């Protein structure tokens, strides 16, 4: 083979396996007509596609991972060792692919399990009964324009008080007082006034909702801004 045909000579493997473009296939076919060494090598490896078909998608019994009987030689050409080496590489790649797919499946299972572990409690929470809640709108006292809504949420330890108020004083401290049936007042929440006059806070009292007779929002100086009967 003359030096000008070196580039075409390296295309032998792709030619045998059908990996050439139409243009390269035509060029190599022309080359084979005059190149004796390429014709000889082609005869030595022409059985490779048949061997790959025999190997099958799992590498064939002669390439499997487990123990097997000694394989019967499939070729008697001088380049059997090279062909066997190529088949061994194909088998190794397929085994790596199976290992990768197994790892991917394990990762997907882990994600699914984690999702179930996260979703399970959420589903349980969704079925938990909502505690009884009563909304009370506190009326502003004369001279005050505040708006106060208080949600009384029944809890095992007493009552949770969710306070939502607007147009409140913008300085000083504010306090929510709960008054029981005997007229005793207890501070259930306190907070600082905001620059916008809007506040949303949560307070608590040991009194049950039915034990609360009245609610009052006062300033830290004791001035009543809004009150409500329950």
From TrEMBL:
Residues 56-79 are annotated as: Disordered. It is a single-pass membrane protein. The chain crosses the membrane at residues 100-120. Keywords: Membrane, Transcription, Transcription regulation, Transmembrane, Transmembrane helix. The keyword Membrane applies. Residues 8-39 form the Putative zinc-finger domain. This is Zf-HC2 domain-containing protein. It comes from Arsenicicoccus bolidensis. The lineage of its organism: Bacteria, Bacillati, Actinomycetota, Actinomycetes, Micrococcales.
């Amino acid at each position: 083979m003359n030096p000008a045909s070196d580039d075409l000579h390296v295309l032998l493997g792709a030619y045998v396996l059908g990996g050439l473009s139409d243009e390269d296939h035509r060029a190599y076919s022309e080359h084979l007509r005059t190149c004796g060494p390429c014709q000889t090598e082609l005869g030595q490896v022409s059985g490779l596609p048949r061997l790959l078909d025999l190997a099958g998608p799992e590498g064939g019994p002669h390439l499997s991972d487990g123990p097997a009987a000694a394989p019967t030689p499939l070729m008697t050409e001088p380049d059997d060792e090279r062909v066997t080496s190529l088949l061994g590489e194909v088998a190794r790649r397929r085994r790596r692919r199976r290992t990768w797919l197994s790892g991917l499946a394990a990762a997907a299972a882990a994600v699914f399990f984690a999702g179930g572990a996260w979703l399970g409690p959420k589903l349980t929470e969704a079925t938990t009964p909502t505690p009884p809640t009563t909304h009370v709108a506190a009326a502003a006292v004369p001279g005050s324009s505040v708006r106060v809504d208080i949600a009384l949420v029944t809890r095992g330890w007493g009552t949770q008080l969710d306070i939502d108020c607007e147009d409140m004083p913008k300085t000083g401290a504010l306090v929510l007082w709960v008054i029981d049936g005997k007229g005793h007042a207890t501070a259930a929440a306190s907070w600082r006034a905001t620059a916008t006059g809007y506040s949303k806070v949560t307070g608590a009292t040991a009194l049950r909702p039915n034990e609360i007779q009245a609610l009052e929002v006062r300033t830290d100086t004791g001035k009543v801004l809004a009150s409500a009967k329950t």
